[in-house]
Amino acid sequence: MMTEKAKLQEAQEQFKARFGQWPRVYRAPGRVNLIGEHTDYNEGLVMPAAIQFHVWVAATARNDHKLLAHSTIFSEIVEIDLQSQDLRPKNHWSDYVLGIAMMLEQSGHALRGANLMILGDVPIGSGLSSSAALEVASGFALLATSGMPVDRTELAKLCQRAENEVVGARVGIMDPFVSCFGCSGQALMLDCRTLQYDLLPVSSEAQLVICNTMVKHSLASGEYNTRRAECEEAVRVLSRCLPHVRALRDVTLADLAHHTGELQPSVYRRCRHVITENLRVTDAADALRKNDLPKFGRLMGESHCSLRQDYEVSCAELDLLVELAQKQPGVYGSRMTGGGFRGCTINVV
Ligand code: GLA
User: Fold this and answer.
1) How far is the CA of 114 from the centre of ligand 1 (A)?
2) For residue 2, what pLDDT is reported?
3) For this structure, is 175 an active site residue?
4) Is any atom of ligand 1 closer than 6 Å to the C-beta of 190?
């Protein structure tokens, strides 16, 4: 494997060969989620960790308002004119660069043009957040080449908006947030309502092992939006009797038991997943603090069952990898990670 220093040098040399200048290089990690799935957009708790796969963006400023973005992954160069009145997504990798540039501009950052070269080793479409890593690294590069400081919380929020408003995916804040704030050897427990977070040590006795199913079912993005809509529907119904309920974060299991009859059976099960998953994240954080890896692993297993049965976002390939992993000696816990219907499992080993 190439060292990080060798990768940095490669990025600089490729950039020099393409643009004739020596760039600065910005790097953002992909992520794996240890526990707390489909809770971020319900203003709940999540516990992702940054991983050792990154997107790198090498950049220099230009004297005009153009972005020339070269992706070494797709061997393609795209020109974006920041002054154009007709900036719109094209269902293309460059939408992520365009998206964060548009959100930075809309939030009052007058950007300079830039030459950008994108490199990376986060597997694409595997649920490890290559898109958030590309947005965050591009955001750092665009702000730095324009001589502006980076406020990481604001950047994470703008990356989420870029995905929601430009790319058209209704994702939560988890992925860009951990790409901005994740630290080596630690899990990040985030309260998606207040954006307060805690870095929790993952004992060096444990390794995080990611297994990739290599599948992507076409259901992935459509079902994601359906789940969001079901959660919103539940909040609408429950808030009629429970006016303090703004998000599923505010609903307890006792509330749910009391109002079961008012919800469609599938919507009831979506709620049960979200409420119990928030409780599991709190327990999992406790377990990590006490270095109780067997307990952490049991909670991961419960999370997977809840995602499979109540939230219905797993698939046969993810279930099989989890089942096989759980039988191996030395595996504390295994579950699907990310939005579901594709991608990877996370195993604490
Ligand atoms: C995707 C989204 C995240 C989160 C997860 C599910 O990864 O990008 O915001 O909702 O699904 O936990």
Assistant:
1) 30
2) 81
3) yes
4) no
